[in-house]
Amino acid sequence: ATGAVLQVEAGGHSSVVAPGFDGWLRGLMEEAKALARRPLVRAARAGDLKRIASLLTRGADINQQDGEGHTPLMAALLAWQYDAARLLLRHAPHLALRDREGHTALMWAAYRNQPGIVEQLIAAGADVNARTGGGEPVLLFALTGPYALAEQRPHGSAEVLALLLAAGAAPLAPGQLPAALRADTDPVLLRLLEEWTGNGGK
Description:
Elements: E1 6-10, E2 13-17, H1 21-36, H2 39-46, H3 49-57, H4 72-78, H5 82-89, H6 105-111, H7 115-123, H8 138-144, H9 158-166, H10 179-184, H11 187-197
Antiparallel strand pairs: 1-2
Helix pairs in contact: 2-3, 2-4, 4-5, 6-7, 6-8, 7-9, 8-9, 9-11
């Protein structure tokens, strides 16, 4: 049973497994099985363009979701596999789908600071005013995303922010941002928000 102390034997040796490990291991195995049933998500995460193309040709579901609710498009964006994301976009994925926490593909594209992909998503009808389950708007993701993996630079993208605002995203005044976020936000982005709200951020 979950939480029990397990006695594991291998190669003539035995060891005691900490309580809860069996449940964690079963969960991990179930996730692996679930991912195996969603090969397009796995290929997207790996950026395997040939595999993606082959799976789509054979009728793989472009909208399949893994255990976290990530679609192949979301998985590609989260794994920094932008060529894979662009390939998937050519096959008309359902853009209103959300992961477990309510994120859409547009949110992840904005967070990854990918203006070209954001523009494609907007043109395809992605909702620029969608909010997560916690109420965070798409615009917030354009303010907080890193430029590149582990890169130490101000967060956010003025180009992505401008695209979202021009497409009708409800503007946020800088004064509406949490103090910690405002302090970490690139001043260029704050000025852009002030221009759109027209109230000096107040």
